[in-house]
Specification:
The complex is a heterodimer of chains A (363) and B (401). Chain A has helices at 2-20, 22-38, 56-70, 83-95, 108-120, 144-158, 174-192, 209-222, 235-246, 262-270, 281-296, 334-339, 345-349, and strands spanning 43-48, 73-78, 100-103, 125-128, 138-142, 162-168, 196-203, 229-232, 256-258, 275-278, 308-310, 319-324, 327-329. With 363 residues, chain A is α/β, with parallel strands linked by helices. Chain A is elongated, with a radius of gyration of 27 Å. By secondary structure, chain B is mostly helical. Chain B has 15 helices and no strands. In chain B, helix 2 packs across helix 8 (212-235) and helix 2 (44-69) runs antiparallel to helix 12 (291-317). In chain B, 49% of the residues are buried. The chains are: A alpha/beta (363), B mainly alpha (401). The A-B interface holds A 51-57, 171, 200-210, 213-215, 217-219, 221-222, 225, 235-236, 239-240, 242-243, 246-250, 261-263, 266-267, 350-351 and B 37, 40, 43, 45-46, 49, 53, 98, 149, 153-159, 169-171, 173, 238-240, 313, 316-319, 321-327, 364-365, 368-369, 371, 373-375, 378.
């Protein structure tokens, strides 16, 4: 009879069918589980220009932590310093479901079409740390011009009159120009009054420390070591500058920097570097993540807390900006970075036994 | 007759035209910069700096001569510098106690080993998997730069052990006056003895020797160069003292590398096989040369030298930074090619590559001395590179086949 002989076969056939489908079923289940929370969850796409500089890892960690706290999803892409790849990255982030984009542009002008395309699709864009001068884009950075002003102020306090050298960043990076403009804001009156003589002024391709070292070798040679201060735009290069000074026994010549690199903070404790302008990039990352979620929920850029109108860009266009305040870290306030858990005390204070700064003194 | 008649006149001097060409260019550049800078370029201090600044590229250019000579290319050398420099820094400061005396020698050895390993890895893919070296080393450029970054999550490692930092030059990174003079005299004596021995050998086997005057002139030039170099290095004193610095350690490494690789290239079977490989790979294989093995070793040597360059770069910087060596591959290849190594493979000169490295660095050194901006420097160096190689290839096709 059909029933009695077919039922076990039929049962076996069903079982076989279910067995063969088990992976697709598991997959579908997993996808539903994962996608479930995604329905209604904001997806924030971050496009990095490259991860080579020390600080971006810190920024990313802060952004991810804040997004987790706010219940948003983190998507990212690394353009590895390629303009073309970054444009493609923006498209791919949108395709992957980003509701808002945070962009650290490799070259802001080159990204304009890709960003306009994103905005047309209703996806708001945040320019992270580097300026993108387009209407509707929220610019989130530290006040880079203020960084330069702080560097110049501290150095000028140490050396009010004398022969100065500028070691600037990469000429292609707009931040180099902002920082230098800030340095000149503070120093121009003294330069024009003749109190400060600028005997050397060079950009350093790629902010590379080795190049900064060679350039400093040459500037010292050209001036027969008669240089009273070196206004250097970042900590990586300051390492090269200080190495060149040490080779001539000129350690202790005032040198500035920015970023709060651990090696630089250690040099400040030892007295070979004067100041590092610290930008707590964790704060920048947190603010960017918070602003991104607000933008994705429909808030207008001008309505984000802390925003102001800013027109200092190269094209002079008005931009909605949140600019955080950088902090000058010198010998006297190394405690600030230690207490903020930015750097361990023993890393900063190692070997600084001869004339320890306040933060390193053994109680 | 016993063989070809000995060359007469100026030809007897046996001057390598491409080496002579680059030496002339170097001299002209140096004099030009000296005049333009008001006599600063040709001071012992600047020349000592120039020598140190050229060391890293020079060491790698020596290895690149063999790589290009074998009709390959190595685009990853800059990234190898980065990752091996990082290795040396991290190992001496973070794996061992920063105060351990044997920390840095071990770290240095590890970095060199890593460089050789990476070179061998690239050599393996090129030789045994038949992937074009352009692609293998392009992949290497990306991979090892990435590894250099990942090792410390981008963090710069500093300071390093003082013993290690000495290797990079700097205030206590030279060997002092007496040792420099001793080495100089030793070198001159060695060259003199070698010349005399070669003359005696050739006479014994009845092969025509160079005319005595030609050998004397060559010896005189060599001796003069060596002793002049030592004099300049000794004339550079420690700041605010009269104590001669002598030959800086990176320059010593450069000289040792040049002598070693030059001997390898010109006097060993390995070197001849490498160039033969570049000249005609099929014929070389048919002649029974183990082509794959030679290729592997060429790349391993290049990796080792890049490792040494990484050690010296981080020692000089006093830090391990993941960006070290960025764009170095371009400078290294340019130095080798300017020095007479043909990109078609089959020929190359280590001495020429050294002079090429010195020449390229003189341009940067001199222009910064004169306060030329970075963009203008870039344009200048690019144009000079083009001009130099064009002149070299034009004169070569006229004189030789």
């Amino acid at each position: 009879m059909i029933g009695s002989t077919d039922r076990p076969q039929f049962g076996r056939a069903i079982a076989r069918l279910l067995r063969s489908l088990r992976w697709p079923i598991h997959g579908l289940g997993a996808a539903l589980l994962c996608a479930g929370p995604a329905f209604g969850e904001v997806a924030v796409g971050v496009s990095w220009s490259n991860f080579q500089e020390e600080r971006w890892k810190t920024d990313e960690a802060a952004i991810v932590a804040e997004l987790e706290r706010l219940g948003a999803r983190y998507l990212s892409a690394d353009a590895q310093s390629s303009l073309e790849k970054q444009a493609a990255d923006l498209e791919s982030l949108i395709a992957r479901g980003a509701d808002v984009l945070i962009v650290l542009p490799q070259d802001a002008d080159a990204l304009v079409p890709a960003i306009r395309a994103a905005q047309r699709e209703g996806i708001p864009v945040i320019a992270y740390d580097r300026l993108i001068e387009l209407p509707g884009v929220l610019y989130l950075s530290f006040d880079n011009r203020e960084v330069g002003r702080i560097q110049a102020r501290v150095i000028q306090q140490r050396v009010p009159n004398g022969r100065y050298v500028f070691v600037k960043g990469s000429p292609q990076d707009p931040n180099s120009h902002f920082v230098h403009a800030g340095q000149l804001d503070v120093l121009r009156p003294s330069i024009e009054a003749g109190r400060i003589e600028v005997v050397g002024d060079q950009f350093v391709d790629g902010w590379l420390p080795e190049v900064a070292q060679r350039i400093t070798d040459q500037l010292l040679t050209a001036n027969a070591d008669d240089i009273d201060a070196i206004v250097c735009s970042n900590d990586g290069m300051a390492g090269g500058v200080v190495a060149a000074l040490s080779a001539r026994g000129l350690d202790g010549t005032p040198v500035s920097g920015q970023d709060g690199d651990h090696a630089a903070l250690h040099r400040i404790a030892l007295g070979t570097q004067t100041v590092s302008v610290w930008k707590d990039s964790r704060a920048l990352g947190r603010r960017a993540a918070a602003a991104a979620v607000l933008l994705a929920d429909g808030t207008a850029p001008a309505a984000i807390p802390g925003v102001r109108r800013w027109t200092d860009g190269p094209h002079g266009r008005p931009v909605d900006a949140i600019l955080l305040e950088p902090v000058a870290i010198t010998r006297d306030n190394l405690g600030v970075v230690i207490e903020a858990n930015w750097v361990p005390r023993d890393v900063v204070c190692r070997g600084a036994t001869a004339a320890p700064p306040p933060a390193c003194e053994v109680p | 007759m016993n063989g070809p008649a000995p060359a007469r006149g100026l030809r007897a001097l046996d001057i390598d035209p491409s080496v002579a060409g680059i030496a002339l260019a170097l001299a002209v550049t140096a004099i030009g910069f000296d005049l333009a800078s008001g006599g600063i370029f040709l001071t012992p201090r600047n020349l000592s700096n120039l020598a140190i600044q050229s060391s890293v590229v020079g060491i790698m250019a020596a290895g690149m001569v063999l790589v290009i000579g074998a009709r390959h290319i190595d685009l990853a050398v800059g990234s190898i510098v980065g990752v091996t420099g990082m290795a040396a820094a991290v190992i001496q400061v973070e794996w061992f106690s920063p105060d351990a005396a044997w920390g840095w020698p071990l770290a240095t050895a590890a970095a060199l080993g890593l460089g050789a390993l990476i070179g061998a890895w690239q050599g393996y893919w090129t030789a045994y998997r038949a992937i074009p070296s352009f692609i293998v080393t392009l992949a290497g450029l990306l991979i090892f730069r990435g590894l250099a970054y990942l090792w410390t999550d981008g963090r710069t490692v500093a300071p390093l052990q003082p013993g290690f930092e000495r290797l990079g030059g700097g205030i206590d990174g030279s060997i002092g006056g007496p040792w420099s003079l001793a080495l100089g005299i030793l070198a001159v004596a060695a060259i003199g003895a070698a010349t005399a021995r070669r003359r005696a050998e050739r006479r014994r086997h009845q092969i025509p020797t160079r005319p005595l005057w030609a050998d004397l002139v060559r010896f005189g030039v060599a001796a003069g160069t060596i002793l002049g170099f030592v004099a300049v290095m000794n004339a550079y004193t420690l700041p605010r003292t009269d104590v001669a610095r002598g030959i800086p350690l990176p320059v010593l490494f450069l000289i040792a590398t040049a002598i070693g690789v030059d001997s390898l290239a010109r006097r060993t079977r390995f070197g001849r096989h490498a160039f033969a490989l570049g000249s005609d790979p099929e014929a070389t294989a048919l002649a029974g040369v183990r082509v794959q093995r030679v290729t592997l070793w060429v790349f391993a040597l290049m990796g080792l030298l890049a490792g040494l360059a990484g050690v010296l770069t981080s020692a000089r910087l006093g830090a391990g930074a993941n960006s070290m060596g960025t764009l170095a591959e371009l400078r290294v290849i340019a130095a080798a090619v300017i020095g007479g190594t043909s990109l078609r493979g089959g020929s190359g000169s280590v001495v020429g590559a050294l002079l090429g490295a010195l020449f390229m660095q003189s341009l940067e050194n001199g222009m910064v001395l004169l306060g030329v901006s970075s963009a203008l420097r870039q344009i200048c160096i690019g144009l000079v590179l083009l001009l130099a190689v064009w002149i070299d290839s034009a004169t070569r096709s006229r004189g030789h086949s």
